[in-house]
From TrEMBL:
This is ImmA/IrrE family metallo-endopeptidase. Pfam families: ArdcN (PF08401), Peptidase_M78 (PF06114). Residues 35-117 form the N-terminal domain. It comes from the Archaea. Residues 150-219 form the IrrE N-terminal-like domain. The lineage of its organism: Archaea, Candidatus Iainarchaeota, Candidatus Iainarchaeia, Candidatus Iainarchaeales, Candidatus Iainarchaeaceae. Transmembrane segments: none annotated. One of its GO terms (molecular function) is single-stranded DNA binding.
Length: 278
């Protein structure tokens, strides 16, 4: 039964990606892609598969939890609401006869489907706003944390006066140059964009992507991260048809999700560690 449910969830993911890959209208395809990025902003600490599952079932979702979790928060699921199915891990101990025949016991992690509901499907006590206070000090500290991230990744960051061709900044494989005549917000956006290039595009498999596809990936990561941290950037993403089959679109999207998560995990380690997201 559980394998059947997981198969249904896999089908939902494949169908969503197939629909996007086959969309020939560039405006509609861009709108669907932006919906995906907006959902990543809200659910960045969820797995890629669960992000797509939430998107395929309720793309307007902003915060999900199980029935009991909502009750613990003083809210009740509204009558008649349809659950959103996502995947959650569970551990199972296997005896020696089930594995290699050795006497040692082995614990494996499996996944099964669970039901969650969006906050819009519930009623009750208002929730506390856990969003960070956004001010100039916050922006400055975020920028310094990103510099620290680069240092840990062995990426050198320098600031120079740049010409029109590289007005904001660029990356050069282990080195990022940022235009010095920018606001702290613009420097932060530029740095996130170039970090995405550094993490993705100087090694296989993404180093072989066309330049335009690389730029879409980097700007998508920037879009997700800046919105997740509350930075009002001018980042915008337009996805013209790339001609990718759905299986390649999967890797393309997953790279964006994982790269944004790497950066946000570093900026908000406590939020990630406390999450129960799969």
């Amino acid at each position: 039964m559980q394998q059947y449910e997981n198969s249904i969830l896999d089908t939902k993911i494949k169908q969503y990606l197939e629909d996007l890959a086959q969309e020939t209208n560039s405006v509609r395809q861009s709108e669907k892609f932006k919906n995906y990025l907006d959902l990543l902003t809200r659910f960045w600490n969820y797995s890629y598969r669960n992000q797509l599952l939430i998107l395929a079932q309720k793309e307007t979702a902003t915060r999900v939890a199980g029935y009991r979790a909502w009750c613990a928060l003083g809210r009740q699921v509204n009558a008649g609401e349809k659950a959103i199915k996502i995947l959650a891990p569970f551990k199972k101990k296997l005896t020696s006869s089930e594995t290699t025949g050795n006497e040692e016991e082995e614990t494996r992690v499996y996944f099964h489907s669970v039901s969650v509901f969006d906050i819009s499907q519930t009623s009750g006590a208002p929730l506390l706003d856990a969003s960070p206070v956004i001010n100039s000090s916050f922006h400055e500290s975020t920028f310094l944390r990103l510099i620290e991230f680069c240092e840990l990744q062995k990426i050198k960051v320098s600031f120079e006066k740049l010409g029109l061709h590289n007005a904001y900044g660029y990356s050069a494989g282990g080195k990022i140059i940022i235009g010095e005549d920018q606001s702290i917000d613009m420097k932060t956006c530029t740095l996130i964009h170039e970090i995405a290039h550094e993490l993705l595009h100087y090694s296989l498999p993404y180093s072989s992507l066309p330049t335009r596809a690389k730029e879409i990936q980097a700007e998508s990561v920037c879009y997700v991260v800046t919105r997740a941290i509350g930075l009002n950037s001018k980042s915008s993403v337009y996805l013209a048809p790339l001609g990718f089959p759905s299986k390649d679109l999967t890797y393309f999207f997953e790279a964006i999700s994982k790269t944004a998560k790497i950066i946000l995990n570093f900026l908000y380690p406590q939020q990630y560690e406390k999450s129960i997201c799969f």
